[in-house]
Design a protein that fits this description.
Elements: H1 7-10, H2 12-26, H3 32-46, H4 49-61, H5 66-71, H6 83-96, H7 98-101, H8 106-115, H9 118-141
Length: 147
């Protein structure tokens, strides 16, 4: 497939604001590993090949093991994630698949709240909103994985 449009080039003002939020997230108290895990899982759900490729590569460069990378898609069965990471991944699935329920179940929220502070939960929500927005840009613009 051929890329349809370069959003960053054509709407640089929006792109720069998105990048500012990403910098805020990566400089925050939310663990970088958690941020990257939820970005990868949401991207898998949304079918954004560009983002799956990018976040997998970023995680590998940061020292993430192949087993953990391969297991994100089957995180419920995998034994390589911490309870906090599993709670974040569950929240990711619910927040990404809102059309399936139109609400995040209380039990998913309560589990996440056992592992993250209110500030971290707020940051996690922002991270989920951002990756879902990035995925929509990537899929609609047909961004090419590996570029």
């Amino acid at each position: 497939m051929t890329q349809r449009i370069n959003v960053a080039k054509n709407v640089p003002e929006a792109y720069h604001h998105f990048i500012a939020v990403e910098k805020l997230l990566h400089g925050s108290e939310l663990p970088t590993t958690t941020i990257e895990l939820v970005k990868l899982r949401a991207s898998q759900i949304n079918g954004c090949g560009y983002c799956v490729d990018m976040h997998s590569r970023d995680m590998k460069k940061a020292g993430e093991s192949d087993e953990r990378l391969w297991s994100v898609v089957t995180w419920r069965e995998a034994t390589v994630f911490t309870p906090a990471e599993r709670a974040a991944l569950a929240l990711t699935e619910e927040a990404t698949r809102l059309a399936d329920r139109a609400a995040v179940p209380d039990e998913v929220w309560e589990e996440a709240a056992q592992h993250y502070s209110e500030k971290q939960l707020g940051l996690l929500i922002v991270a989920l909103a951002m990756i879902n927005a990035w995925n929509r840009i990537g899929v609609t613009a047909r961004l090419t994985p590996g570029t």
